[in-house]
Amino acid sequence: MACRSRITPVLRRASLAGLVRTAPASGASRTALRCLSTAGPRQLRASGPSMAKFTTDTYPDIKRDERFTQITPEHVQFFRDLLGKESAVIDGVTAEVAADDMEPYNGDWMRKYRGHCKLVLKPASTEEVSKILKYCNDNMLAVVPQGGNTGLVGGSVPVFDEIVLNTSRMNQIRSFDDVSGILVADAGVVLEVADQFLAEKGYIFPLDLGAKGSCHIGGNVATNAGGLRLLRYGSLHGSVLGIEAVLPDGTIVDDLCKLRKNNTGYDLKQLFIGGEGTIGMITAVSVQCPQRSSAVNVAYLAVESYEKMQQAFKEARQQLGEILSAFELMDLRSQQLVQRVRSSKSPLEGEHSFYCLIETSGSNSDHDAEKLGNFLEDVMGKEIVADGVLAQDETQIRNLWSQREGVPECLGHWGGVYKYDVSIPLPDMYKLVDETREKIDAAGLRGDSDEFPVVDVVGYGHMGDSNLHLNVAVRRYDKRVEDVLEPFVYEWIAKVNGSISAEHGLGIAKKNYIGYSRSETMIALMKQIKNLYDPNGIMNPYKYV
Amino acid sequence: MACRSRITPVLRRASLAGLVRTAPASGASRTALRCLSTAGPRQLRASGPSMAKFTTDTYPDIKRDERFTQITPEHVQFFRDLLGKESAVIDGVTAEVAADDMEPYNGDWMRKYRGHCKLVLKPASTEEVSKILKYCNDNMLAVVPQGGNTGLVGGSVPVFDEIVLNTSRMNQIRSFDDVSGILVADAGVVLEVADQFLAEKGYIFPLDLGAKGSCHIGGNVATNAGGLRLLRYGSLHGSVLGIEAVLPDGTIVDDLCKLRKNNTGYDLKQLFIGGEGTIGMITAVSVQCPQRSSAVNVAYLAVESYEKMQQAFKEARQQLGEILSAFELMDLRSQQLVQRVRSSKSPLEGEHSFYCLIETSGSNSDHDAEKLGNFLEDVMGKEIVADGVLAQDETQIRNLWSQREGVPECLGHWGGVYKYDVSIPLPDMYKLVDETREKIDAAGLRGDSDEFPVVDVVGYGHMGDSNLHLNVAVRRYDKRVEDVLEPFVYEWIAKVNGSISAEHGLGIAKKNYIGYSRSETMIALMKQIKNLYDPNGIMNPYKYV
């Protein structure tokens, strides 16, 4: 096949019209595009049901914990006096509040969860958080820590009348050391703001995800978000160097270490990473940020089977080695739905069972282009990959990424999505999607017209992390669909020793299913930690373990 | 300067006789050499005092905890019955044991710490560890978990008559998945054995350190070892995916996750990483192992000042980017001592204030050689680097690494070493070495003849991690030296917000100094965790926090 010069790997082939050499693209501009392509949680509300059912209706078995006090005007006055600013308190206890003002804090963006919260507090400092929590703990007032409220498991919205502690006013970058790359920032800094700040310094935030324009880094850390860069930069358990957090009794955990190495005692901050706000509230984080790569290349490839996809992944890892920064899987159906919603065309002609997006990030664009060119020539020569396109400029990079990043948004087009975010050993990973679709079909629930609740069952995700997003796009939430899905999906995952929550966390959605991924001993040890730090149980109740 | 072809960066310069293009070298063979060059703990005993002072003499303020039971013949019989095998029990309680048989478990390799242990147990399974710990907990018998006993802070040897629980018989690799790169292995597997196993599969253990031929991976994880690859592969908090551990009450913590992403509850395993065996004993670990790089290059450079060293580091990070795998600092004195002990010559002519070792690891040797060649040309052109040599084959790579890895071993030549392993923000990092030397000199303690206790004060370490090893080589341990060093060193580090333990841990050496790096609140929270898991305090007492 292909004639290839040593440095500019321009592959030519009848079916590969769009495949040309990539130009280096700055991460910063890719970032800009990502924002455009991911509409952001709020916009999704435009389509589908206007307001979600109350969580208390969806989960009638959950009863309000009688230990918690009802909020009184006196409580509200205390918070008003403490926070001073009018805008720091949204008070539905002593006053009428327009639904539009309260709803963004009570409901999640997927319209699956909705609480009865009547009081939102927006502290501006760690000291204010400390005083609020101490008061709540002393008065048995339950609270929900909340960042950008972009979660997928109902973890950041109340169930009953818990007070929302929102981090949006704690949004300062505290310091950045441009020799070590260590960033210290308030919990309420928006991920994209942090990343753009870093881009100007030649650094990158070690985490990236579709909701970056809205989510807060405190929430990212509290939920141990995984996202698109984990393959390259590892998990937050490694890249978060320090945390400042407030315990329910008001104690400030001052562990905001700015050193890569610090072996002086138990690494307590790790309990807050992925703790989902159940033992304390993160108020600031210290993060080790890698240098930003000057050269970014993106290829979008078509593959005929999941077996070949695994081969392509192995080859990519071997041949692209240290520059591989993403290997994202998308099935045909996920791509067809994106194109249907957007009335757009596929980047590739014809239909193929699977697609993947490969990103490389490196310090030398010639070297990276050569590695990627060699890789593409090799996998196409071996007929592992059927077709492909290589972005040649920033616009094309953005467009290819939007094929992957647009999936969650487009799936919501018909009204709702049942989302499962799971870790499964690679060889078995995609089987779950096929088997779930078969079960939905056997129950007669999937079809093209309104009488069928299910639009389609699709799979996509982070192949590099064995992390599958099994999504069931629906026209409405329907008990019959739920009965097919659960516990079937969880049992399937337990059978292959997977995880029922790869990166989205437990929240309220998976609280009752943790037994599929964790032993009784582990769950008991977790409850012991919860009781140690939050003996009154005021932190984010009714959720997690 | 330099004529340079595009692909083979052969730099030519009068002073750079040895600087030629590197050939790719497999990590496996580098590994083999490392073993030769680091003599290993035991051999160091040949020189210097034949036996260390008892820790109880060095630290007369530490009193035996009266709650602990004295070991009786009945206890010994229980353990004999449980473990079966004769070789699994070294019994100095009911029998005479040759000093040579007990000493390796009672004393550390630096001859600084020595306990009064009379019973060593070598369980072969997690279940045996569980039964031992439960029995010890029920009978108030104190224990010290011990791996390869290569620690530097006295954490793995007893102080009084604690029972040693040694992991050497738990040495099996349990599983390896060559698609995901996830290794599951017993705690007692020697680090080098694990790494060689991985080398055959094309993978690498994400940790490397001088003692790799003796240390156990369980001990590495228990002490959160940092080492030579942290710059590239991050800390064990990120790369350890799961842990199996036994709590003092015999509970088996089965958290041996084999998934890159698993957000299902508090990440309890993190408490055991760096917990130094004080809340439980690690019996197995699951580790995410990166792919081994096919191309490894090593350069050894001379730099005239610490300011220029910082510039060289910044340039290396920028220009070598994703392939930079080590940037190790060594001062002139550290190199002179190595050459004196070995009667060898420096790889470079003349004397320069500082040296650094730069390693790159990548997937394409041509690309890597070009990047490194460009970098060297650039930093020499800018006169940041004064001189340098680039290894051209595996033997040269080994020889250059031995200039760095040989430092700790050679410093022990005269009898002993006061070792400080600290994290300090880069701009201030080396100042500590100069100021310490000035203080030692002002006290008249350093000189070339036997009347002076101090041979020299040197600094070296992991520049890429802001991690300095301040070492004071001595002819004998001397109270006057200690009085100059402490608390001076710790106060100095606290002043610049550094860490008194970057990677070596606390053990007994730093137990009393943690207040220089941690607040009272943090120390109280740590003690709370200790009391939660080990209410009887039997796990590795008299140490840590």
UniProtKB/TrEMBL annotation, chains A, B:
Record-level Gene Ontology MF annotations: (R)-2-hydroxyglutarate dehydrogenase activity; D-lactate dehydrogenase (cytochrome) activity; FAD binding; metal ion binding
PROSITE patterns per record: FAD_PCMH
UniProt main location, coarse: mitochondrion
Localization, UniProt: Mitochondrion
EC category: oxidoreductase
Superkingdom of source: Eukaryota
Keyword Electron transport: no
Reactions accelerated catalytically: (R)-lactate + 2 Fe(III)-[cytochrome c] = 2 Fe(II)-[cytochrome c] + pyruvate + 2 H(+); (R)-malate + A = oxaloacetate + AH2
Pfam family, any one: FAD_binding_4
Known cofactor(s): FAD
Domain FAD-binding PCMH-type: 113-292
Keywords assigned: FAD, Flavoprotein, Metal-binding, Mitochondrion, Oxidoreductase, Transit peptide, Zinc
Presence of the UniProt keyword Transit peptide in the record: yes
Record Gene3D superfamilies: 3.30.465.10, 3.30.70.2190, 3.30.70.2740, Uridine Diphospho-n-acetylenolpyruvylglucosamine Reductase, domain 2 (3.30.43.10), Vanillyl-alcohol Oxidase, Chain A, domain 4 (1.10.45.10)
GO biological processes: malate metabolic process
CC annotations in GO: mitochondrion
The protein's Enzyme Commission number: 1.1.99.39
Family, per entry: Belongs to the FAD-binding oxidoreductase/transferase type 4 family.
Task performed by this protein: Catalyzes the oxidation of D-2-hydroxyglutarate (D-2-HG) to alpha-ketoglutarate. Also catalyzes the oxidation of other D-2-hydroxyacids, such as D-malate (D-MAL) and D-lactate (D-LAC). Exhibits high activities towards D-2-HG and D-MAL but a very weak activity towards D-LAC.
Protein name in UniProt: D-2-hydroxyglutarate dehydrogenase, mitochondrial
Annotated source species: Pestalotiopsis fici (strain W106-1 / CGMCC3.15140)
Lineage: Eukaryota, Fungi, Dikarya, Ascomycota, Pezizomycotina
